[in-house]
Structures are given as C-alpha cells and as structure tokens.
Design brief:
The protein is α/β, with parallel strands linked by helices and 483 residues long. The chain is built from 13 helices and 21 strands. The strands form 6 sheets. It has a 7-stranded parallel sheet. A 4-stranded antiparallel sheet has the order 12-11-10-21, covered by helices on one side.
C-alpha cells in the first residue's frame, strides 16, 4: 500500500525520471481495503512497516529520502504520490489491483472474482466510489481501472456484465471526467465475449469506456519455448486479436495495460514474445503500460528487498537496468496514427521490433539504407514495390544480392524489386534476387546498422531458429515527420 522505491530515492526524483524516460502515465495500483478499511488506511507508513516486521532501516531510509511521507497515513501517502506525479506532468490511472493487500495474482488467492473470500462486490463498489471522489480534484488522474486480472473458478460472463456495469456507473457518478477501464477474464487475457454483446451503461460508452488486455510470454510459455517463432507469433497475435483486438475495429479504445520482459535478456521465451508484442502494439497503435518500473519490492511473497527483473530500473533504482530495452519501448511511446495525428496522408514505416528502429536513409552512404529513427515515409504499393513517398523522383528499395546492402533505385527501373510478406507473422519482407530464383529477406548487417538482404530464416518450422533480426513490420502512420 506504499508506493515502491520510497526508501531508495526522493519521490520527486522518481517522478522526474519517469518523464525523462519518455513515459507520460503511471498505472498506480491500490487495494480495495485501502479505501474501505479505515483502521488499515489510517495507520501511518511507519506503523505499516512495523506491523510487517520489516527492517528498521527501511523506515530510516524512507525518513531520509521522503521525510514528509513516513508519518502520513497510508491513504495520505498514496495521495502524495499521485500529487507529485501530477506536479511532474505525469498522468495516473488508479488501478484496483486486488482487495486484500498482498502480491497478485493466483487463481485461489480469494481476490480473483466477485464473491471470492475478499471480493465482496458491494465493498468493491464502495471502494471505487471513494477513490473516484477522493481524486476528483486531481486533474492528472485520467482513468480508473475497475479491477485487475479477473480470474479463478468463480469467473463467468454474466457476473462480469452485471458487476462491471455497477462499477462503471459508480465511478461515472462520482467523477464524470475519468476514463473507465475494464479488464477481461482469465487474468485479463479474454474479452472475446464482447464480440456478441455490449456492456450497457447510462453514459456514452464510446467516449468514456476503455478495455484493457494483458499479454506476457508465460501466458503461452510452451508455445514460445517449443514452437517456430514465426508460426507462434502469427498464431498468438491472431489469438490476441480474437480475444481483444477486434474491439479496435468497433472503435473502442484498447489498452495493453500490462506487457513486459525479463530486462536482463536471459529469458529466450520472453525475448521471442517481446519482438512479436512490440510489432503488434506498433501495428495496432495501442496505448500500453510496461510492467514494470520498480527495481525492487519492500516485501514480496515473504522476501524482503526482492529484486524485480522485469523492472525498468535496477535494484538500486538509480540506473536503468537495460538501456537497449528502454530504447526499444521508447520507439512506440508516441502514437503513429492516434487522435490528432491527421496532418499527413497515411504512409508506412518499416519497423524493426528487435531494435525499436525503422528503415531509414543512411546519411553516411548515398542511396543506402540503415536502421535508425522512424523518419521516412514509405509506400507499399499494389505492384509490390517499396518506395519513398517524398522527393521529386520516386525511389524504390532494390536488392543487390545475398549479403549485400539494399539500394534505392528509380521505381521505373526494370531492376526494381517486388516485395512480399512471408511467414505466418507476415514480417519477413522478401524478394527474389535479380537474375536468379533465390528468395532473400530484409535483414540487419553485422554492423547492427546497415539494411541488407540474406536468405530468409526460420521459414521451415524449426523451433530452435531465431528469425527476429529479419522481422520488419510495415506499420501505417500519419505522424508528421519534421526533417
């Protein structure tokens, strides 16, 4: 119930670091009991640590870094975090993560679904109303997530519709301005039941309701470990669309409110999944929240000072755990075609999810291409050419040969390459080598910068093969590019 990291750094430093890394919003968790159990909510931060038997040094460090917090009540400390984020122009989504404070989540923890031991629907609605009212004056609180990861043996569609409508109405009645964010079933992997039925609420649903979905490698762990990555990415991306992505086609906002990776880069299943998820998020232009910021926990599942390897920050909170991974997610922090981005006609970027870069002109070599900023407008035409949409003379990407850098040629040149999207994930951008039958795919050269063509990898179903370097996603964008 106390935001992590208060024993590591001053709150204001953490808030500023969030903005400096390019993030504009925090999904801040809270347990129902913080809003509905006054004796619990009104103990101080110091008393809470004492009750849990945590080392006195934790309180001393909070007192050193955040002296104004240590003797506030838990609910006041939560408010202080929200306010400080607002002072630093960071938006907040209040996320009702669990009822009874503790680590989340399991199917049998008593917090999973309406009617579970700690999940009384009436108490939950009371808590939502309390928090929506309490934070009504905090203009940086822009949304309330009604409940994280509904799950367990009690879960069913009828109760979802009944109680989610109750929760949504309670939040709307208390605060007309915040977005109402609704999670699905099965640990928020499934919103498919909305394909045939809508949630009935008294307010305009398409101006206020947002649906959220989660996506991790461990949701499909065996597939990522044992399957061909091209096939697995194609199949699971299709499943995400069937379970949640279809809502975009119905003009409902979809929020990928949890996705993430072991930041150390040692988990092969995570690594395979994350490039796929990055491509999907870019292609669908999703809003998203990365799990997670914190480098450590005061106490998690009985372990004091547990390190969070999915955390963007290191154990000491003063450095980024993996600068390369941060760079990757920064590539999708700005919308590609979201609201307000209609300054230019739609064009394509050629996005390389493994690096977070895009195919662009190589400033050091004339008519050569490299991976770098997403600063070029491409067109993928009906005649299967990939051409620049700027300049007086159209230029097309053309293969020169196996292992060779691609070139830009005039599009009416008979040598201009025709490109096709191969494999189940549609991310192998392929062509035939001029004068031969060899099929090659866009790739990144050994200098980790130049764009070349190589024989297409992993098309044969080999589970041990790694195709990520050859994954390029053609993403539609209307973002204004300023040269």
């Amino acid at each position: 119930m106390v935001a992590e990291g208060m024993s590591k750094l001053p709150l204001d430093e953490i808030s500023k670091a969030i903005g400096a890394m390019g993030f504009n919003c925090v999904r801040l968790t809270w347990p129902t009991f913080l809003a509905t159990n006054d004796p619990l909510a009104n103990i101080t931060v110091r008393q809470s640590f004492d009750r849990l038997g945590l080392n006195f040094s934790d309180v001393s460090l909070i007192e050193r870094h955040n002296p104004a917090l240590v003797d506030l009540s838990l609910i006041e400390a939560y408010q202080a975090v929200v306010s400080n984020l607002g002072d630093n122009n960071v938006m907040v989504i209040l996320d009702n993560h669990i009822s009874k404070p503790g680590w989340c989540c399991s199917r049998t923890d008593g917090n999973g679904f309406f009617g579970d031991t700690y999940f009384d629907p009436n108490v939950w609605v009371e808590g939502l109303n309390y928090m929506a009212t309490l934070f009504g004056s905090h203009k940086n609180v822009i949304g309330m997530s009604l409940r994280n990861e509904l799950r367990g043996p009690r879960q069913n569609v009828e109760d979802w519709f009944k109680y989610m409508a109750m929760g949504a109405e309670a939040v709307h009645a208390a605060n007309k301005d915040v977005l109402v964010i609704l999670s699905g079933l099965s640990f928020d992997n499934d919103l498919g039941f909305l394909s045939t039925r809508q949630l009935n609420v008294s307010f305009s649903s398409k101006s206020k309701l947002v649906f959220e979905v989660h996506w991790y490698s461990f949701s499909n762990s065996e597939a990522w470990g044992n399957g061909n990555p091209n096939d697995v990415c194609g199949r699971i991306s299709g499943s995400v669309t069937n379970n949640a992505g279809f809502l975009l086609d119905r003009q409902f906002p979809l929020f990928l409110s949890e996705f993430g990776i072991d930041q150390r880069g040692v988990n092969e299943r995570d690594n395979r999944y994350f490039s796929c998820a990055m491509a999907y998020a870019a292609d669908k232009d999703l809003d998203w929240a990365l799990w997670t910021l914190q480098g450590s926990y005061y106490l998690r599942e009985g372990v004091v000072e547990l390190e969070e390897v999915y955390g963007l920050l290191s154990l000491n909170w003063t450095t980024v755990r993996n600068q390369t991974q941060l760079q990757r997610v920064q590539s999708i922090q700005q919308p590609f075609r979201g609201p307000g981005l209609s300054e230019v006609p739609p064009y394509k970027i050629i996005f390389h999810p493994l690096t977070g870069h895009c195919v662009t002109l190589d400033s050091s070599r004339r008519l050569a291409l490299a991976v770098g900023p997403c600063s070029e407008r491409w067109n993928f035409s009906d005649d299967q050419t990939l051409s620049l949409t700027t300049g007086s003379t159209p230029s097309c990407i053309t293969t020169v040969g196996v292992g060779m850098p691609v070139a830009l040629t005039e599009c009416d040149d008979v040598m201009s390459s025709k490109w096709a999207l191969l494999s189940s994930c549609h991310m192998h951008v392929s062509t035939k080598v001029a004068g031969g039958n060899a099929t090659v795919c866009l790739d990144v050269g050994g200098d980790d910068r130049s764009v070349i063509t190589n024989p297409c990898r992993c098309l044969g179903g080999d589970a041990s093969c790694d195709p990520e370097g050859q994954w390029f996603k053609l993403v539609t964008s209307t973002r204004l590019i300023i040269s």
